[in-house]
Design a protein that fits this description.
The structure holds two protein chains of two kinds. Chain A is mostly beta strands. Chain A has no helices and twelve strands. In chain A, strand 7 and strand 8 form a beta hairpin. Helices cover 0% and strands 50% of the residues of chain B. In chain B, the strands form two sheets. In chain B, strands 2, 4, 5, 6, 9, 10 and 11 form a seven-stranded mixed sheet that branches. Chain B has a four-stranded antiparallel sheet with strand order 1-3-8-7, with no helix packed on it. In chain B, a hairpin with a 5-residue loop joins strand 7 and strand 8. The chains are: A mainly beta, B mainly beta.
Chain lengths: 114, 113
Protein backbone atom coordinates (compact mmCIF):
# COMPACT_ATOMS: atom_id res chain seq x y z
CA UNK A 1 0.00 0.00 0.00
CA UNK A 2 1.09 3.53 -0.65
CA UNK A 3 2.33 5.51 2.31
CA UNK A 4 3.90 8.87 3.03
CA UNK A 5 6.23 9.54 5.92
CA UNK A 6 7.19 12.94 7.27
CA UNK A 7 10.17 12.60 9.57
CA UNK A 8 9.77 15.73 11.62
CA UNK A 9 6.60 16.04 13.65
CA UNK A 10 7.36 19.31 15.39
CA UNK A 11 10.03 21.80 14.37
CA UNK A 12 10.92 24.98 16.23
CA UNK A 13 13.08 27.59 14.49
CA UNK A 14 14.08 31.17 15.00
CA UNK A 15 13.32 33.73 12.33
CA UNK A 16 15.87 33.77 9.48
CA UNK A 17 16.86 30.14 10.10
CA UNK A 18 16.81 27.74 7.18
CA UNK A 19 14.14 25.07 6.94
CA UNK A 20 14.14 21.58 5.52
CA UNK A 21 11.22 19.21 6.09
CA UNK A 22 11.63 15.61 5.04
CA UNK A 23 9.08 13.59 3.08
CA UNK A 24 9.46 10.04 1.84
CA UNK A 25 6.87 7.95 0.07
CA UNK A 26 6.44 4.36 -0.91
CA UNK A 27 4.98 3.78 -4.35
CA UNK A 28 6.55 2.02 -7.27
CA UNK A 29 5.00 3.87 -10.16
CA UNK A 30 4.75 7.41 -11.45
CA UNK A 31 3.66 9.88 -8.81
CA UNK A 32 2.51 13.44 -8.46
CA UNK A 33 3.83 15.15 -5.35
CA UNK A 34 2.47 18.04 -3.31
CA UNK A 35 3.19 20.14 -0.28
CA UNK A 36 0.23 21.79 1.41
CA UNK A 37 0.27 24.29 4.26
CA UNK A 38 -2.41 24.82 6.89
CA UNK A 39 -2.22 28.06 8.85
CA UNK A 40 -3.90 28.01 12.27
CA UNK A 41 -7.66 27.74 11.89
CA UNK A 42 -7.56 27.73 8.11
CA UNK A 43 -7.96 25.22 5.31
CA UNK A 44 -5.15 23.57 3.41
CA UNK A 45 -3.47 25.65 0.73
CA UNK A 46 -1.17 24.40 -1.99
CA UNK A 47 2.47 25.42 -1.53
CA UNK A 48 3.92 23.66 -4.54
CA UNK A 49 3.52 20.63 -6.74
CA UNK A 50 5.58 18.31 -8.90
CA UNK A 51 4.14 16.46 -11.86
CA UNK A 52 7.10 16.04 -14.20
CA UNK A 53 10.15 17.83 -15.56
CA UNK A 54 12.63 19.76 -13.45
CA UNK A 55 12.86 17.98 -10.10
CA UNK A 56 13.46 21.26 -8.30
CA UNK A 57 10.14 23.03 -8.01
CA UNK A 58 9.46 26.47 -6.63
CA UNK A 59 6.27 27.39 -4.85
CA UNK A 60 4.71 30.34 -3.16
CA UNK A 61 6.26 32.38 -0.34
CA UNK A 62 9.85 31.37 -1.16
CA UNK A 63 9.38 27.63 -0.64
CA UNK A 64 10.95 25.04 -2.89
CA UNK A 65 11.14 21.26 -2.98
CA UNK A 66 13.36 18.72 -4.65
CA UNK A 67 12.13 15.42 -6.03
CA UNK A 68 14.78 12.71 -5.76
CA UNK A 69 13.32 9.67 -7.48
CA UNK A 70 16.06 7.28 -6.35
CA UNK A 71 15.38 8.16 -2.72
CA UNK A 72 11.58 8.37 -3.03
CA UNK A 73 11.86 11.77 -1.40
CA UNK A 74 10.33 15.20 -1.85
CA UNK A 75 11.83 17.47 0.80
CA UNK A 76 10.59 20.99 1.38
CA UNK A 77 13.05 23.85 1.88
CA UNK A 78 13.11 27.54 2.61
CA UNK A 79 16.34 29.51 3.04
CA UNK A 80 15.03 31.94 5.66
CA UNK A 81 11.80 31.41 7.58
CA UNK A 82 9.54 34.13 8.92
CA UNK A 83 7.22 34.17 11.92
CA UNK A 84 4.31 34.07 9.46
CA UNK A 85 5.47 30.62 8.29
CA UNK A 86 4.21 29.15 11.56
CA UNK A 87 1.79 26.47 10.35
CA UNK A 88 1.34 22.78 9.76
CA UNK A 89 2.86 21.34 6.60
CA UNK A 90 1.65 18.25 4.80
CA UNK A 91 3.34 16.24 2.11
CA UNK A 92 0.98 14.32 -0.20
CA UNK A 93 1.37 11.81 -3.00
CA UNK A 94 -0.97 10.93 -5.84
CA UNK A 95 -0.39 7.65 -7.64
CA UNK A 96 -0.96 7.11 -11.33
CA UNK A 97 -4.58 5.99 -11.05
CA UNK A 98 -5.84 9.36 -12.33
CA UNK A 99 -8.51 9.46 -9.64
CA UNK A 100 -6.86 12.28 -7.73
CA UNK A 101 -6.66 10.19 -4.57
CA UNK A 102 -4.08 11.73 -2.27
CA UNK A 103 -2.14 9.97 0.46
CA UNK A 104 -1.02 12.47 3.09
CA UNK A 105 1.84 12.34 5.50
CA UNK A 106 1.23 12.86 9.20
CA UNK A 107 2.09 16.52 9.03
CA UNK A 108 4.86 18.67 10.51
CA UNK A 109 4.07 21.51 12.85
CA UNK A 110 6.46 24.40 12.32
CA UNK A 111 6.79 27.03 15.02
CA UNK A 112 8.88 30.08 14.16
CA UNK A 113 9.99 32.21 17.06
CA UNK A 114 10.26 35.96 16.40
CA UNK B 1 -15.27 33.22 -6.17
CA UNK B 2 -16.15 31.11 -3.12
CA UNK B 3 -14.23 27.95 -4.15
CA UNK B 4 -15.23 25.04 -1.90
CA UNK B 5 -17.91 25.78 0.69
CA UNK B 6 -18.65 23.47 3.62
CA UNK B 7 -21.55 23.64 6.02
CA UNK B 8 -21.80 23.63 8.95
CA UNK B 9 -18.48 24.86 10.34
CA UNK B 10 -19.06 23.38 13.78
CA UNK B 11 -21.39 20.71 15.11
CA UNK B 12 -21.83 18.75 18.32
CA UNK B 13 -23.73 15.48 18.19
CA UNK B 14 -24.71 12.80 20.64
CA UNK B 15 -23.71 9.20 20.02
CA UNK B 16 -26.22 7.55 17.70
CA UNK B 17 -27.46 10.74 16.06
CA UNK B 18 -27.25 11.16 12.32
CA UNK B 19 -25.96 14.13 10.37
CA UNK B 20 -25.11 15.21 6.85
CA UNK B 21 -22.16 17.43 6.05
CA UNK B 22 -22.62 19.53 2.95
CA UNK B 23 -20.01 20.52 0.39
CA UNK B 24 -20.38 22.61 -2.74
CA UNK B 25 -17.83 23.88 -5.24
CA UNK B 26 -18.23 26.56 -7.87
CA UNK B 27 -15.16 25.78 -9.98
CA UNK B 28 -16.89 23.28 -12.28
CA UNK B 29 -14.54 20.53 -11.08
CA UNK B 30 -15.20 16.93 -11.97
CA UNK B 31 -13.80 15.28 -8.87
CA UNK B 32 -14.67 15.76 -5.20
CA UNK B 33 -13.29 14.27 -2.00
CA UNK B 34 -14.02 13.92 1.70
CA UNK B 35 -11.17 13.70 4.21
CA UNK B 36 -10.95 13.56 7.95
CA UNK B 37 -8.07 15.14 9.85
CA UNK B 38 -6.98 13.75 13.18
CA UNK B 39 -3.99 14.86 15.27
CA UNK B 40 -0.77 13.10 14.26
CA UNK B 41 -2.46 11.26 11.38
CA UNK B 42 -2.61 13.84 8.63
CA UNK B 43 -5.62 13.70 6.33
CA UNK B 44 -7.23 10.41 5.44
CA UNK B 45 -9.55 9.93 2.50
CA UNK B 46 -13.06 8.77 3.42
CA UNK B 47 -14.82 8.73 0.05
CA UNK B 48 -14.34 10.34 -3.29
CA UNK B 49 -16.24 10.98 -6.46
CA UNK B 50 -14.05 10.96 -9.55
CA UNK B 51 -16.89 12.30 -11.67
CA UNK B 52 -20.57 13.09 -11.40
CA UNK B 53 -22.55 9.91 -10.86
CA UNK B 54 -19.71 7.87 -9.35
CA UNK B 55 -18.49 7.39 -5.80
CA UNK B 56 -15.79 5.17 -4.35
CA UNK B 57 -14.42 4.25 -0.97
CA UNK B 58 -11.21 5.75 0.27
CA UNK B 59 -8.97 4.70 3.13
CA UNK B 60 -11.48 5.01 6.02
CA UNK B 61 -15.07 4.64 4.71
CA UNK B 62 -16.65 2.68 7.57
CA UNK B 63 -19.51 4.51 9.26
CA UNK B 64 -19.99 6.99 6.41
CA UNK B 65 -22.04 7.32 3.25
CA UNK B 66 -21.82 9.87 0.47
CA UNK B 67 -23.99 11.30 -2.25
CA UNK B 68 -22.82 13.14 -5.34
CA UNK B 69 -25.99 15.14 -5.80
CA UNK B 70 -24.83 16.91 -8.95
CA UNK B 71 -21.55 18.23 -10.31
CA UNK B 72 -21.38 20.95 -7.65
CA UNK B 73 -22.40 19.11 -4.50
CA UNK B 74 -20.98 16.16 -2.58
CA UNK B 75 -22.43 15.33 0.84
CA UNK B 76 -21.12 13.11 3.61
CA UNK B 77 -23.54 11.36 5.96
CA UNK B 78 -22.98 9.83 9.36
CA UNK B 79 -25.89 7.47 9.93
CA UNK B 80 -25.17 6.70 13.59
CA UNK B 81 -22.44 8.90 14.96
CA UNK B 82 -19.77 7.41 17.21
CA UNK B 83 -17.18 9.19 19.40
CA UNK B 84 -14.44 7.81 17.12
CA UNK B 85 -15.84 10.02 14.37
CA UNK B 86 -14.95 13.16 16.28
CA UNK B 87 -12.68 14.93 13.82
CA UNK B 88 -12.26 17.82 11.44
CA UNK B 89 -13.75 17.02 8.04
CA UNK B 90 -12.48 18.59 4.86
CA UNK B 91 -14.05 18.54 1.45
CA UNK B 92 -11.91 19.09 -1.63
CA UNK B 93 -12.44 19.34 -5.36
CA UNK B 94 -10.22 19.00 -8.36
CA UNK B 95 -10.30 19.26 -12.11
CA UNK B 96 -9.66 15.62 -12.91
CA UNK B 97 -7.63 16.06 -16.09
CA UNK B 98 -4.51 18.08 -16.69
CA UNK B 99 -2.52 17.51 -13.51
CA UNK B 100 -4.33 19.92 -11.27
CA UNK B 101 -4.12 20.20 -7.47
CA UNK B 102 -7.00 19.79 -5.06
CA UNK B 103 -8.75 22.80 -3.57
CA UNK B 104 -9.95 22.48 0.01
CA UNK B 105 -12.86 23.89 1.96
CA UNK B 106 -12.55 25.48 5.41
CA UNK B 107 -13.53 22.30 7.23
CA UNK B 108 -16.25 21.14 9.60
CA UNK B 109 -15.26 20.54 13.20
CA UNK B 110 -17.46 17.71 14.48
CA UNK B 111 -17.61 16.57 18.09
CA UNK B 112 -19.53 13.48 19.12
CA UNK B 113 -20.29 13.03 22.79
Amino acid sequence: AQSVSQHNHHVILSEAASLELGCNYSYGGTVNLFWYVQYPGQHLQLLLKYFSGDPLVKGIKGFEAEFIKSKFSFNLRKPSVQWSDTAEYFCAVEGSSNTGKLIFGQGTTLQVKP
Amino acid sequence: NAGVTQTPKFQVLKTGQSMTLQCAQDMNHNSMYWYRQDPGMGLRLIYYSASEGTTDKGEVPNGYNVSRLNKREFSLRLESAAPSQTSVYFCASMERYGNQPQHFGDGTRLSIL
